[in-house]
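Justification of resources, computational component.

The compute hours requested in this renewal are based largely on the per-chain cost of generating structure records like the one below. Each record pairs the submitted sequence with a full structure-token output. That output is archived, and it is also reused by downstream analysis tasks.
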Amino acid sequence: MKTRIYTLLLLLAFSATICLAQDPADSTVGFPINAVVFLKDGTQLRGILLSESPVGARIKTDNLGELTITADKIERIEKNDAGFYHKGVYWFDNPHRTRYFYAPSALPLRKGEGYYQNAYIFVNSVAVGVTDHFTMGGGFVLNPTFQDWQVLFLNPKFSFPTQSKVTFSVGAIAVGVFNRQYEYDYQSFTSRKGGIETNIAGIGYGTLTIGDAERNGSVGLGWGFVNDELGGSPVINLSYMSRLGRKIGFVTENWLVIPPQGGNSVALTSGGVRFFGEKIAVDLALVVPIAEDVGFIALPYVDFVIKFGSKKKSREAKRKIEAAEGGF
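The structure output for this chain reads:
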């Protein structure tokens, strides 16, 4: 059984490495400014802003080609450095680069960016970029009765990017389980509320991510804990994501618990598709637990994510915008 689990995860890691070694074709920006021109009649023109002046603007769109719009028809122009052109079609940057299904990559949220995630209706979480290198997440499991128990969790992460496509992070996934205790009165045959029992469990981890927002793979190593006791074996995470199209991607997330001497390995593998726009994403996947004496079972996984916040323009983007604001 252990050999089967190790072989499966090694194959996943090897496949991710091969994919990361391949550069996506034609994924560079061919013009200086991506922009959206909002017209007074409600029309939105997205494309490359070629020039802008007090009398109007020229923009090259995907479907209509190059257009010249006079200033009296323009409500406003929004310029940004997000996105690129792939085979002549505009692709917005992957807004979900920092996470797989639940496991984080080492890539950070930018300051002010964030997202809300809901899985299985009951699991709710939020993550926010506090700085460009520190992401804070947290959430709760919805208790339909709102009584007796509550589950809360926190996910802090510090990221350390490099000049290459390698990012390292350290963080933790901490879960608190709070249970209401009851005391039974044998004289009156009734129970009354007592104190609250608190249990804290989680993983402290380090993650190495290779790749960029459109395609990346991660190897994570962590150590579990329950209250004040450390786990007896490490936990390994192997995850990978790749953008397959403008609004669809592939994601796999895999966990392996290395057993103590003489123990049995336990693994959790998953894979599925991500459908996403610039603000909303939906993940559909299958989760397969692997353990001794456990037959094959595939559990469905569903979540949806809403992105919020905005990122500041980079210095390079500001330079491009200033250089392009010349004559018509």
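The mean pLDDT is 82. The first helix runs from residue 2 to 20.
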